[in-house]
Design goal:
Number of helices: 0
Strand order of the largest sheet: 3-4-5-6
Oligomer: single chain
Radius of gyration: 16 Å
Number of domains: 1
Length: 161
């Protein structure tokens, strides 16, 4: 079981091959931000997926956070969905955009596995969710050579038909 600790700061630390810290950055967005995973870009920058507290302080919104190779902030892009949603794993897609998995709250304790595809600037191009009568969460994502997505996660809708 994962334990989540609310962070007011997002820390990004880079180390070289021998383990020395090459830079360390801390970011203080106005809302609480949970960072879940990071990928390195071809330009040596980073993209972090996670979720940020909604501006109305009710729930969280999945988001991507892009930095340059020095850890300087380039953009922060929440999904903007009405429902509470979380991002857990991101990948660079075959078309040079991004995709991430997580979950979205459908209300009354029902959460669905969420898949979001964005462009290179982190703008949502499309999204879909999967689930049964209970809850599902997506934790890992892979894109095949023919552009299909494979997702891994958990489900509590075992006997759902």
């Amino acid at each position: 079981m994962k334990t989540y600790i609310p962070l007011l700061l997002l820390a990004l630390t880079a180390r070289c091959a021998i383990g020395q810290i090459t830079f360390e950055k801390r970011f203080s967005p106005a809302q609480i931000f949970y960072s879940e995973s990071v990928i390195q870009e071809n330009d040596s920058g980073f993209v972090v997926v996670g979720h940020i507290q909604k501006t109305n302080n009710y729930g969280y919104d999945a988001c991507l956070f892009k930095t340059n190779k020095y850890g300087d902030s380039i953009w922060l892009k929440p999904t903007g969905f009405t429902e509470e949603n979380h991002g857990y794993d991101a990948i660079k897609t075959n078309d040079n955009g991004y995709a991430f998995v997580g979950d979205i709250n459908g209300g009354y304790g029902k959460e669905g596995l969420l898949l979001v595809k964005t462009d290179l600037q982190g703008n949502v191009e499309w999204n879909t969710n999967f689930g049964g009568v209970n809850w599902e969460h997506g934790y890992s994502l892979f894109q095949t050579n023919n552009n299909d997505f494979i997702m891994a996660g958990t489900s509590n809708s075992i006997n759902d038909k």
